[in-house]
Amino acid sequence: MLMVKGINYILYLCFIISSCANNVSDRPSENPLFIEEHHQEEDIKPMVDTIEISDTAIIELKEEDGSFLLNMKYATEDNFLKEKVYDCAKCLLRKKAVDALIKASALAEQKGYRIMFFDCYRPLYIQEKMWEIVNDPRYVANPAKGSIHNRGGAVDLTLADMEGNALDMGTKFDHFGKEAHHDYLELSEEVLKNREELKNIMTAVGFIPLNSEWWHYSLEGARNYSLGNTPIVCDE
Ligand SMILES: [Zn+2]
Questions:
Q1: 64: how many CB neighbours lie within 10 A of its CB?
Q2: Residue 214: what pLDDT?
Q3: What is the Cα–Cα distance from 1 to 12, expressed in whole angstroms?
Q4: Of the chain's two ends, which shows fewer C-beta atoms within 10 Å, N or C?
Q5: Closest C-alpha to 71, from 207, 167, 202, 193
Q6: Do residues 131 and 149 make contact, with C-beta atoms less than 8 angstroms apart?
Q7: Among residues 186, 213, 220, 236, which one is catalytic?
Q8: Separation of 28 CA from ligand 1 center, angstroms?
Q9: Which CATH architecture group holds 58-224?
Q10: Is 213 considered catalytic here?
Q11: What would the pLDDT profile of 170-207 be if each residue is shown by its tens digit?
Q12: Is the pLDDT of residue 12 over 50?
């Protein structure tokens, strides 16, 4: 179902991620336009359910795709920029990352947790804005290189209980200081356990932690994805 829902997004987002055109396969099973033409010519029923979307397509992760909670901080003023910089509170990511996060959600649920997102894909022009404020590569990636968020392969997230209350992770999201580091251990047992639970879930599905930010995880191999600079806009 997710793959079918994602079709709208691949068509739309082909315009926003520069590499996307290269990532959509010309193979009939992966190209809905091709299937439509094929149908007209030979009257073969389109196999819509079997359409596959490329792993590198950008799609929207929605709350109902798992037991997810979206708390997209940059679509509010509650962030270190003190400004609402996304029009809409959407979590856009490469499909491979979405697939892994759906597995992560199932793992989290088995342990009585839900995954709460703070940020997903982030346009490069927002990265530049962040870099102007926090000129420290431990916490904000230099836009000259680009963040894996700009590539649609990183997430900022935490765990919540099943009622949606975020667990205590010792600091707030975007706390730029040593207390947010994984190797900072002067924290309560509960906080250390909560961070460990998040790390275990995320690494089990192919994400890599970042020492300086307990909330940040990058999908393995996502450094190779191309940068995106299109704003996060609302549906019409
Ligand atoms: Zn991050």
A1: 10
A2: 98
A3: 18
A4: C
A5: 167
A6: no
A7: 213
A8: 36
A9: 2-Layer Sandwich (3.30)
A10: yes
A11: 999 999 999 999 999 999 999 999 999 999 999 999 99
A12: no
Residue at token pair 């809409």: 88
pTM for the structure as a whole? 0.80
pLDDT at 129 over 80: yes
Nearest-5° angle of CA 164, CA 167, CA 170?
150
CA of 40 to the centre of ligand 1 (A): 46
59 and 11 in contact (C-beta within 8 Å)?
no
Q: Where are the domains of the chain?
A: 58-224
pLDDT tens for each residue of 41-85: 455 655 556 667 899 999 999 999 999 999 999 999 999 999 999
How many angstroms separate the alpha carbon of residue 211 from the centre of ligand 1? 11
Report CA(139)–ligand 1 centroid distance (Å). Answer: 8
